[in-house]
Design a protein that fits this description.
The structure is a homodimer.
Chain A: H1 13-37, E1 42-48, H2 54-64, E2 70-73, H3 80-83, H4 89-92, E3 101-105, H5 111-118, H6 124-143, E4 147-154, H7 157-169, H8 179-186, H9 188-202, E5 209-213, H10 217-238, H11 278-302, E6 306-312, H12 318-325, E7 334-338, H13 344-347, H14 353-356, E8 365-369, H15 378-381, H16 387-407, E9 410-417, H17 420-431, H18 442-449, H19 451-465, E10 472-476, H20 480-498
Parallel strand pairs in A: 1-3, 1-4, 2-3, 4-5, 6-8, 6-9, 7-8, 9-10
Helix pairs in contact in A: 1-10, 5-9, 11-20, 12-20
Chain lengths: ~500, ~500
């Protein structure tokens, strides 16, 4: 495939100067339009061979456009905060919000897999898995409305060698040639072969690669600039105004999420009659808390992170379970993070972004009080996410959790189940307890009316996102004491399964 | 002073159980009220001798209150991302937003100065400087509406030794005694003396220390809980509803910022007649950009960070200057960050918080396109900040920049000055250029009408925040070419002054 970028394409000085001025002006206009509309983000990847002009291209784009609304990223060795999270964490934390352009120069999510493969650190098979992950990552961003432009700046071996020699000859530029460049040059053929595989595997229709012959800087610069402009303009022309969060459809228009609400869902399998007497509860709670304490101390020492996802009906007792888990763990080692409606800043990002941000450090535990599953629960039922959005979310969530699991994180997902009568009783009880009144709002009653829709959504969620690496656990919640002990046991068992005996 | 916490105070089991239930309930109510009002944040520091029960107290507070709205922090060795910024960066990044409670257990901003002094790594004089910094930090947070509660859990030497022995005797708790604990115990007297100095120096009226006798866990727990409750309740009772951002006062009511607008301000000293011809400009710009390129490469290698603050009149040409600085620097090593009105999340924090977040890593450069000076410029003139707020901001800003400078960061502050006629000419010119029209809004004309108020504010700003470690530079901006070369020279000179020859 690289032959197509070895044709000695050139642009004369004259043509360059004629084209550059209108190009810059048009790029500025497009950037400004993007900024005003805030309906999508643009991600520009500049990859390719060493000395192919990657940083020159990035610098030029910064000259051509308004650098105040560009974000440039290049990655060196991961920091220790990055090493303690899955590989993609460092990329998620740098993604631009809508309205802005992020430029990833040189090192990006492609660097590690490609270099590891070139240097024989990973097998062909591992490379394929990494490329699948990359494809999923980019597909998610595209589905979220990102424009992704990927440039591969290519030089053949002779041209690269020549470039390095020229730089070395001049004392002014000699510093730009590093030992690493020479080491890479020796592996040129390997590099070319691996890159070709990577490009083929990740050149999807929505995030295609643009192979750019890098020998002539004028040709290279104009090609990149014009490609970016065309993509921005095409997208701006087709752009729908950012969909306003649609109000919950009126009751009458409720879509029939399930044809027959009387069909059994996964929730009907939950035995809600289970019960635990008070004296037994005390004993068992104490014992399971003791077990959790020991297990989490071990997890902390071993650097094993834990993510606990708490989902469940309103008033199901999530808070009560959380308050039984936390006393067993040193407060320095956990965080409880409640998630409500996203903030202004969060809405300008992919819906998973705010959860990526909160991933625990090595050895730490995060309790997500409501979570990324909001996408397929409340957002689905209330119509805040369109059908296309929530249906693809199952796969996105599975990929996200797979990355966590592959990093070694323990994932515990709990759905706390109660029945409708029990919920009503608890609402009424809360209304009578002064410091619990705030927990009951008109919204709770509104949600209650959509019980069947929620039940169908929970059913689909469990069906589609219960994986071997991150299974769902249904908690039998009608009896609070039983539910708490059950939940703690599941947390303990999940930790124990991950830790060496 | 510690004698007051060596009185063997105890609480019986019976009294404890009588008091704990109503305390918990009241704490929950107060926490809930805080959460609803979102008018302030609470910061609880739990410090003191090793084995004095610091983490037990934090854990207990997490049981008593709703852990979903608490944030627990304990700090180990700084991460490399933290080491690359001033010492307080790690604390700023963890401060809770309004409506929430942050608990800092054990290690906090006090730890490093106290331990360094105990182990003879810093002199008395250095300790004093660190304590002044702490006092300023806390005073700023209090002024911003934070409730700060500082507990010092005290054990005398014998009690501490006894506590360590007891823990060691039991195989279940032996792991809790570390080599560090024993090392610290040997320095008990030093530790006590340094702690006493620290507590005296930082026990201000607004953020007082609470010395708690830690021998009896029941006494300790009740005392901490009740003190927190009292502070929250007192604050909630006196709480004013969060001041809505006051609308800009009507023109007629404009406060006379200066009695006589014709009095010369510092801006009248700027020679706006300076001019640079086009051909000279090209040469000089190229030469100063070359110099900047070499200097910043050196700064990058040496790990020296740079913060450039761009302020100036609307249409003064800030963007043009930025676009002349950036091409001289590798885009991987700088970020340009434009600051407008704060977001929802940012408004729940101290106004400096969003700037702390953006401090550059070692060797990197951040261009702040508008900055923390908004507090004493637009917020002052438009009435978004009250007089008490903007007047204390000068000192707060000086402290902030002093920390940056002490960390070794180069600070370059530029005010780009033009006169009123030039501004009008530029507004009109912009309105005629398609891709610049967006830059001109009705607001620009409104701001223009308050020219004299802004001029007075700029004058005060320069007068009060031009320090030897972070001086203001006034750019003669009527001639854009002259202004750009002047600005770049100042950036170069500032870098050169900091770098070894």
């Amino acid at each position: 495939m690289f032959e197509a970028a070895e044709l000695d394409r050139k642009v004369s000085k004259k043509v360059y100067h004629e084209e550059v001025l209108p190009l810059r002006e048009a790029l500025l206009c497009a950037q400004q339009e993007l900024r005003t509309r805030r309906s999508f983000r643009a991600i520009v990847l500049i990859a390719g061979v060493d000395k192919g002009g990657k940083s020159e291209t990035m610098n030029l784009l910064n000259e051509w456009m308004d650098p105040r609304h560009l974000e440039n990223h290049a990655f060196g060795e991961p920091t220790d905060e990055e090493r303690e999270r899955p590989y993609f964490w460092r990329f998620w934390r740098t993604l631009p919000p809508t309205g802005r352009i992020g430029i990833y120069c040189g090192s990006s999510w492609y660097s590690r897999p490609i270099l590891d493969h070139v240097y024989g650190k990973i097998s062909d098979h591992d490379l394929e898995s990494e490329l699948v992950r990359i494809r999923n990552f980019e597909a998610e961003l595209v589905a979220d409305g990102s424009v992704i432009l990927k440039f591969w700046l290519h030089l053949n071996k002779a041209a690269q060698r020549e470039r390095i020699r020229t730089l070395e000859r001049d004392p002014e530029t000699r510093w730009r040639v590093t030992a690493k460049d020479k080491k890479h040059l020796k592996r040129y053929d390997h590099f070319r072969a691996t890159a070709e595989r990577a490009l083929r595997a990740t050149g999807s229709g929505d995030a295609p690669w643009h192979l750019v012959e890098a020998k002539d800087p004028r040709y290279r610069s104009l090609t990149c600039g014009q490609t970016i402009l065309a993509a921005l303009e095409r997208r701006l022309a087709n752009d729908q105004p950012a969909p306003a969060p649609s109000p919950p459809p009126a009751m009458a228009a409720t879509p029939a999420v399930r044809d027959d609400p009387d069909l059994p869902t996964i929730l009907s399998t939950v035995d809600l009659s289970k019960h635990l007497a008070k004296n037994r509860y005390r004993r068992r709670l104490e014992s399971v808390q003791g077990r959790l304490n020991i297990l989490h101390r071990q997890a902390y020492r071993d650097g094993v992170s834990t993510a606990i996802v708490m989902e469940g009906w309103d008033a199901a007792g999530k808070g009560g379970i959380i308050r039984r888990i936390t006393p067993a763990i040193d407060a320095r080692h956990y965080r409880v993070i409640p998630f409500g409606a996203p903030t202004e800043e969060e809405r300008r990002h992919h819906y998973l972004w705010r959860f990526w941000r909160q991933l625990p450090r090595a050895g730490h535990l995060t309790l997500f009080d409501r979570s990324w599953y909001g996408r397929v629960l409340v957002e689905r039922v209330e119509g805040f996410a369109g059908e296309a959005e929530w249906s693809r979310a199952y796969g996105e969530i599975n990929d996200f959790e797979e990355q966590l699991a592959a990093h070694g994180t323990v994932i515990v997902k709990l759905w706390v189940h109660i029945d409708k009568d029990e919920q009503l009783a608890r609402f009424q009880q809360r209304e009578q307890t002064p410091y619990k009144q705030y927990k009951i709002t008109a919204e709770d009653y509104r949600n209650r009316e959509r019980w069947d829709d929620y039940a169908a959504a929970v059913n689909d969620m469990v069906e589609r996102t219960s994986t071997d690496y991150a299974p769902w656990h249904l908690i039998e919640g009608n009896d609070k004491r039983h539910a708490r002990v059950q939940a703690l046991r599941i947390v303990c068992d999940s930790l124990a399964a991950r830790l060496p005996k």
